[in-house]
Amino acid sequence: MSSALQSIFALPLRGLTWLGSQGTRAVAAIVFIAAAVPPLGALLRPYLTEAILVLLCISFMRVDLVALSGHLRRPALVAAATAWTTIGVPVIVGLVAHATGLTERAPGLSLALMLQSMASPMMASPALAALMGLDATLVLVTLVTATAIVPFTASLFAGLFLGGMLSISPLTLGLKLSGILSASLLSATMLRWLFGADAIQRHKQSIDGFNIIILFIFASAIMGDVVGDLMARPIFTVSLAALSFAIYFTLLTVTTLLFRRIGTERALALGLMVSQRNLGLMLAATSGALPATTWLYFAMTQFPIHLSPYLLTPIARRLTAQKPTAPMIAATRPAP
User: Fold this and answer.
1) Which residues on adjacent β-strands are paired with residue 300?
2) How many contiguous H segments (helices) and E segments (strands) does the chain have?
3) Which of 40, 142, 153, 330 is 20 to 30 A from 67, alpha carbon to alpha carbon?
4) Cα–Cα distance for residue pair 128/24, rounded to 1 Å
5) Which CATH number, 3.30.930.10, 3.30.2130.10, 1.20.1530.20, 3.30.1330.40, labels domain 22-321?
6) Neighbours of 152 (CB within 10 A)
7) What CA–CA distance (Å, rounded) separates 179 from 35?
């Protein structure tokens, strides 16, 4: 029986392993395929929340939270980075949106920018940083602390800046975020207990491949209307795409400059983390009940997120090459 089962699952596992071995190439291709096949968006959108939960579970499953305590050697730096990404960024975005009148003139876009700023960093940030040769440890510790407090900070800033723009109350938003993260963490902990860390590491590329499939479901669900919007409102759609790139690289640049005293290479790693916002978490918490403009902006943000490895890796390699002795960090494929 075991031989029969092995033969049945051998081909799918080889397929997942091959897909996982494609790494950033597959992640970058996903965004274009998802945008180019609109019918998939309508088909897969009902499964958006489930896809987000699976992506979070896979990411948590690969993080040994017990081992994080050994990395907290610089609590002041971690606290500063956490405060910047969870408090500093949403405060600045909220104040700018209100000062410029964007909240009244374009409420859908203002809501998108606020939800983006309130979101925690993507769970893939440490793996992506390691893949680029950057300091993954600092990113990992900061990511965990930021994710832990985002239900509270998001609830606070939703009450301060969003008013009645959300279909749910700030308290409900915080509770749903907490529930989603807790459920994902609990599921990941159970999987690690059932299969063990060694088995997870041994089948890393197969898990990468499965992760890419789930990511494709997420990208298709969020980008299903992009082609239609581009045909109907080309200037507006392209403008949102340009804005998404501008905000991505503004967050990256400002964060790198703020933390440049710890070294450009480590500061760039933090910049990468801050610019990669987990919008899927916000979509799940709001059950996708968002204006069309908010959806479209979220779709446009997928382009800089998926293309950033190609855009930033040459810069990261130059920075790490300048270091006399660069400690090696084991890189894993990103699991967004």
Assistant:
1) none
2) 18, 0
3) 153
4) 9
5) 1.20.1530.20
6) 13
7) 30
CA 286 remoteness from chain centre: 17
How many angstroms separate the CA atoms of 264 and 284, rounded?
Answer: 35
Scan for tokens 């581009």, then name that residue: 230
Q: What are phi and psi of 203, to 5 degrees?
A: -105, 30
Contact (CB, 8 A) for 139 and 81? no
Residue 121 phi/psi, 5-degree rounding, is: -65, 155
d(CA 320, CA 133): 7
Segment 70-87, tens digit of pLDDT: 556 668 888 999 999 999
Please name the residue that has the structure tokens 């494609």.
22
Q: What's the pLDDT at 82?
A: 93
- DSSP three-state, residue 259: coil
Alpha carbon distance 327, 137 (integer Å): 11
CB 31 within 8 A of CB 256: no
Beta-carbon contacts of residue 281 (< 8 Å; ≥ 6 apart): 52, 56, 119, 120, 150, 177, 180, 181
What pLDDT is stored for residue 254 in this prediction?
Answer: 96
Backbone phi, then psi, for 199, in 5-degree steps? Answer: -65, -40
- Please state whether the predicted TM-score (pTM) of the whole model is above 0.90: no
